[in-house]
Amino acid sequence: MVLALCLLLPGATRAQDEEGVTFELKLSKNQLGVNERLRADFIMNQDGDNFIPPDFEGFRVLMGPSQAISSSWINGVRKYSKTYSYILAPTAKGNFRIGQASIDISGETYKTIPAEVSVTEAVDTPNGAPSPDDIADKNLHLVAEVSKMDPFMNEPISVVYKLYFSSAVGVSNFRPLDNPKYNDFWSQEIPFSKYNVENGSYNGQPYRYVVLKRVVLYPQKSGELEIEPLALDVSLEIPTDRRDFFGNRIYTTTHKTVSAGKRSIRVKPLPLEGQPEGFSGAVGEFDFKVETTKDALNASESLQARVSVSGKGNLKLFQLPELNLPSALEVYEPEFSEDVRTTLAGMQGSVTETYTIVPSFQGKYPIPEIRFSYFDPKAETYRSITSEEIMIDVLEGPSANMPSASPATAERKIPVSRGDQFHFIKLEPNLGPRAWVPFFGTGRHWALLFTPLLLIPLVVFARRRKDKKDQDIEGTKVRRANKLARKYLFRAKKVLGEKEEFYIALEKALHNYLKAKLKIETSEFSKDKIRELLVSRGISQEDIGYFTELLVSCEMARYSPFSVARMQQDYEKASEVITALDKAL
Question: pLDDT digits over 52-110, tens only?
């Protein structure tokens, strides 16, 4: 038995050696339509290295090279085959030539024979093998789902971009190539943290999909408006006909560009019929109210009046109605605030304007009713909400003195010319020659001569006094501080009515006064330390309380509204306190 094997083996080797090396090109067809696919197989009967494919001029390589190896023993003869395969798509009609491919086998180079291919018109039933692009086209779709195609102007619509793919392919990655600009729309994207794969259907077939982008749009003009497309570059895993060692299907990776395409919507204008006066463009479903923090207070105290709109709609795209308040009330610019969240249904929440109001005089002041109008797109009609009148009762404070108005029909008197309007002109001046009076030797002459000499001692005395003052550094600081105190107090009186400038000047006047009288740097001391120093100088507790109260008013004025009457009171109090401290110190 062993001898028989030894005899057979040399025979098998010789049979393989006697078989020559082959390396050839086989095409699936030599004539095909421009919409068909061509398979090119480069087959060799022995293993080789350095395979170099030809230049596939006139064709686009869709897939390849893929390798297939077959090895078997039949009647003691080994059969071996190795194949490099390509799937080609023609790029145009015409006659093309697939050139030579080469490979090295056992140290020698072998080449294939070129093949001619004829590409004709497109055929109705292409029978070529589907390319990865064909598979992607059939199993991958990007869709823009628009919630409403005929909204009113400023009515919200949502656009949801979904990437549908069948179970035949797998999506490994994607990146946007062109994001839409949403011209003629107010837009807000709704972000999300991660992408979720969900089950759905496309054209009646089961698909999986991923939501890529969610946007809420408010059209800003009527007519035909276009939503620009979203384009993506998607990486796909496409199955092939080959399988691995364990029998699992082998996938190949390809890239596919998909677009959602343009979507056109028809935006309806808001109707002009029945449009209320003062309509500011609010569209949705809203509630409107005006409320105050208090309805009774004293003069120089403050209250807040809030005008707010809440509900669903274009909350960020219209103006709130303004309060019309009596001129006797001091009103500051309103502060705007919003609490708005955006979902696929549009904006929801509230917007508010808060007015700070300070009455100066006692009395009753009404806040008149105001009206807010909006368009309801569901009912396709305008609606209006009117607030109730609010009465503000100012209990304590100065009374308003109303000046009497001059009669509207006051009689105009025409001046009458008396004829003596030029009586001041002296028509007969009676001019005559003046007598010459001598100057030298007169008292005026001697006074002008000796007066400069008498001023010399005064100049010397003043100079010495100035030098002495300059050497007194502490005294110079005190005098300068005293001068600044008077300067800033005068400045505060001049800008009375301008809150920030008034209280800055008043605070500087008070600090410089302390510098002059107590010879201290007030920036280094707190109010408690200043109070201790004033107590040590014998100042009464009442005056100290007034002084510290003024300092607190200067600080609080930066953050709270102050009326003109309050500023006048603070100025008069500052003058009284400084006078009282002058007497005590």
Answer: 999 888 888 888 788 878 777 766 677 788 888 898 888 888 899 898 999 998 888 89
Q: Which domains does the chain have, with CATH numbers?
A: 18-126 (2.60.40.740), 134-267 (2.60.40), 284-394 (2.60.40.740), 473-584 (1.20.120)
Q: Are 575 and 492 in contact (CB under 8 A)?
A: no
Q: State the amino acid at position 469 in one-letter form.
A: K
Cα 493 to Cα 575: distance, rounded to the nearest angstrom: 10
Amino acid code (one letter) for 177: L
Angle between helices 473-494 and 499-518 (to 10 degrees): 160
- What whole-number percentage of the chain has pLDDT above 70? 78
Q: What are phi and psi of 64, to 5 degrees?
A: 125, 170
Is the whole model's pTM more than 0.70, yes or no?
no
Confidence of residue 14 (pLDDT cuts 50, 70, 90): very low
| Residue 348 to residues 150, 286, 516, Cα–Cα distance (Å) | 21, 10, 61
SS3 554: helix
- Structure tokens given for 36: 């068909």
- Within 13 Å and on the Cβ side, how many CA atoms surround 179? 9
Give yes or no for a contact between 300 and 566, defined as CB atoms under 8 angstroms apart: yes
Q: Which amino acid is at 464?
A: R
Q: What is the pLDDT of residue 410?
A: 32
